[in-house]
């Protein structure tokens, strides 16, 4: 089991705002990040407890599958990788001495070294040990089938969909939300936007700024939703005083 106290920081839980509207149709909807199918999807950020539930969740039918899939989620989360980048990792791309993983083909085909903390490399260990015991190609993909073949992103999408259903989570569960969570954590820790840009592999600082603003707007909505009415005992929201008089004219 991955120890979240070692891997995660404490940050508040944003709640996905509901409702959206297509461009040119009525008022603008909530901030969103465009999905692969061209849909505008509100950005998700997971809390520490939600990530823990995902890592401890039903990630496969047997322990081998669960061990591999848990390691995959950890890498996408703690290195902020896109699912395609994580599945493209080769064993030689794991560079704990350099403090990260080598992304061969980021967006636009650009390579980069994405930082990852030592505890996350440790959490990756059980899968790497199992991979060796299975006799898989030491130069092959880090995350592969048990016969050494490359995994498909569609498998990860279906796995995440099953997780949401089985765990009863209200938020959408998808691999890119782990990248959102990573960016959000860095921002909350005070990491400079320029460094976050390099970590995420964005082409420009403007892209990173928009990315963080979208995620931050969802967090603001969540915080405001949690605000309660500070009323005297027995008072109800509709009993509030308006311009010195309550709604009953008293």
Structure notes:
With 250 residues, the protein is mostly helical. The protein has a single domain, classed as hpI Integrase, Chain A (Orthogonal Bundle), CATH 1.10.443.10. 43% of the residues lie in helices and 7% in strands. It is built from nine helices and seven strands, in the order αββαααβββαααααββ. The protein has a three-stranded antiparallel sheet. The protein has a two-stranded antiparallel ribbon with strand order 1-2. α7 crosses α9 (205-225) and α8 (193-200) crosses α9. The chain is globular and about 65 Å long.
Query: How many alpha or pi helices?
Result: 9
Mean pLDDT across residues: 80
Give the full name of the CATH homologous superfamily: Intergrase catalytic core
Helix content: 40-55%
Largest sheet: 3 strands, antiparallel
Classify the fold: give the CATH topology: hpI Integrase, Chain A
* Low-confidence runs: 4-38, 243-247
CATH class: Mainly Alpha
Radius of gyration: 21 Å
Number of strands: 7
The CATH architecture? Orthogonal Bundle
End-to-end Cα distance, whole Å, is 60 Å
Task: Give the SSE layout.
Layout: H1 4-7, E1 33-34, E2 40-41, H2 48-55, H3 63-79, H4 83-87, E3 94-95, E4 100-103, E5 112-115, H5 118-133, H6 153-167, H7 175-188, H8 193-200, H9 205-225, E6 241-242, E7 245-246
Antiparallel strand pairs: 1-2, 3-4, 4-5, 6-7
Helix pairs in contact: 3-5, 3-7, 7-9, 8-9
């Amino acid at each position: 089991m991955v120890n979240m106290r070692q891997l995660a920081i404490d940050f508040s839980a944003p709640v996905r705002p509901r409702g959206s509207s297509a461009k040119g149709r009525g008022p603008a909807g909530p901030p969103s990040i465009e999905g692969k199918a061209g849909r505008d999807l509100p950005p998700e950020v997971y809390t520490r407890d939600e990530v823990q539930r995902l890592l401890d969740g039903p990630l496969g039918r047997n322990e081998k599958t669960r061990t591999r899939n848990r390691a995959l989620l950890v890498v996408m989360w703690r290195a902020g990788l896109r699912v395609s980048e994580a599945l493209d990792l080769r064993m030689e791309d794991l560079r704990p001495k350099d403090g990260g993983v080598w992304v061969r083909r980021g967006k636009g085909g650009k390579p980069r070294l994405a930082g990852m903390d030592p505890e996350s490399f440790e959490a990756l260990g059980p899968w790497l040990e199992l991979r060796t015991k299975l006799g898989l190609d030491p130069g092959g993909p880090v995350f592969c089938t048990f016969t050494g073949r490359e995994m498909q992103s569609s498998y990860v999408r279906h796995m995440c969909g099953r997780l949401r259903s089985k765990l009863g989570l209200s938020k959408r569960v998808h691999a890119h939300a782990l990248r959102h969570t990573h960016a959000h954590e860095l921002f909350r820790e005070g990491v400079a936007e320029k460094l976050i840009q390099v970590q995420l592999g964005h082409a420009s600082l403007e892209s990173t700024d928009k990315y963080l603003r979208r995620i931050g707007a969802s967090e603001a909505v969540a915080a405001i939703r949690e605000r309660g009415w500070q009323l005297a005992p027995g008072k109800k929201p509709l009993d509030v005083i308006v311009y010195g008089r309550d709604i009953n004219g008293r």
